[in-house]
Amino acid sequence: MIKKQFYLALEFLFAFLLLALGVVSHHSLLVWVDTSTANIFQGMETSSLTSILSLVSKVISPVTTSLVALGLITYTWMSQKRLALWLGSLFFGGNALALGIKYLVARPRPTHQVILDTGYSFPSGHTISTFLLLVIALVLLKQGRKVVTGRHLYDIFALVILTLVILSRLYLGNHYLTDILGSILLGTSYYFGLSSIFPVEKLRK
User: Is the pTM of this model over 0.70?
Assistant: First the structure.
């Protein structure tokens, strides 16, 4: 299992690095994908959608997800300190890595923004922070007794939340599609990498 997670981490990392290289070099295929996606969302703009998706972007923000993650980690710390440290390393370490890459790549945000956002674009901070928070919640959910039933419901909930965040970032013009993909690839690679070094199953004991 550990070896499998290690290889998965490498595979997702390779995919991320390939995507990042394409972003930095302005590869024509990625430019076409980003431009086409942006045009689709620009054609969907309405005042109602703008109000709804701007609210989603404000409510499910890196600040909000960080506070929720901190609350979950603090709660876990009271009974399982090693697991809490692992969760903290996953969430805050992953976000710190994404922030460092954001400044390293220094990709400007899209020129057409419905709601202005500042800073660099690649990878998406909203997406990776939401993704990692949902992973933390899933790890904690697995400790409950009704794992099967809860897991199915949670999978639907997590998919809806992540989809809303992704749609809000694309619709508002704050990110390119490749920024979103980069966040998911990076977050997944980081999760598998951390799991291969420190298996979460052993930390629950």
Answer: yes
